[in-house]
Description:
Blueprint: E1 2-4, H1 29-39, E2 46-51, E3 54-60, E4 65-67, H2 84-93, E5 100-106, H3 108-120, E6 128-137, H4 142-148, H5 151-168, E7 172-175, H6 180-191, H7 194-199, H8 202-211, E8 217-223, E9 229-237, E10 241-249, H9 258-272, E11 277-282, H10 286-290, E12 294-304
Parallel strand pairs: 4-5, 10-11
Antiparallel strand pairs: 1-2, 2-3, 3-4, 5-12, 6-11, 6-12, 7-8, 8-9, 9-10
Helix pairs in contact: 1-8, 2-3, 5-9
Amino acid sequence: MTLDATVDWSVKQWELTASAQAVGPFVRAGFLKAWWSSFGTPDEPLEVVVDDTGLVPLWHTVDAIRFAGDPDLTDYHAPLGIDGSQLLVDFVLSRSRGTSYVFDSMPEEAASSIAAFFSYQGVDVEPQQHAVAMRLALPISFDEYLMSIGKKQRHEMRRKVRRFAEQLGDPILTEGDAFDDLELFFSFHRQAEGDKGTFMTETRADFFRELLKIDGARLDVLRDGSGEPVAASFGFVDADAYYLYNSAYDPAKADTSPGIVMLSMLIEQAIGHERRWFDFLKGDETYKYRLGAEERPLYQVSGIQ
């Protein structure tokens, strides 16, 4: 059956296993409902295709059928359940000739599954890598992590944490308050220079307010020795990983490296909670490599029916 996306986000199939491992909240109802309520428009409708053992949320944009979730805000896509990939392919092939489809941001196993079902139907598609996520495989202790990143990076991290402590007191990482600290997070964003300073529009702020309500969402705040906030991170946790979705810091404290100090404490926290991965999500920024993360290729399957 096909559900109108505005009617029911609560069907049990939203909890089916994704066709790729460790993809966080991005394939689930809570995240996509928050995205849709903030950015959805009637002229680009959402459609949830579902049967007893599969579900795939689709977005009818002006130029193509896509996964629900803007790829600039949605780091992973993957069909749900053992029938999810087949549901997607069957849906695409039932459309009129000339219909374009673009399914992006898939880990290899999800992209391969979709390509295989297209092949079963006589359609030859080849997944193309178009992006990477960066993630860190977590060891059993923070000391082991520090050893893994090499002498130079280990020295740099310790030096920056020490400098922070000398100037601002020992750093403290706390879970943030749902209102006051979220507004602080927005303020840090808006004080930043360049694109980061213009990212946090009121629409995006509303999106983050909705995201903080979903299971596994958390806001962490880095405070100085007197308890004053210096930086904040927005992320998600599940049994597999901590997913770092966004972060910002007080630009007046930039010389104390609050971003790196906060990241080191977030990594230590994730290790303490026995997470398997610390996922920096999309983007191949240099600092991620320096902190020990490795590339996770993301693939796109596209074509014209």
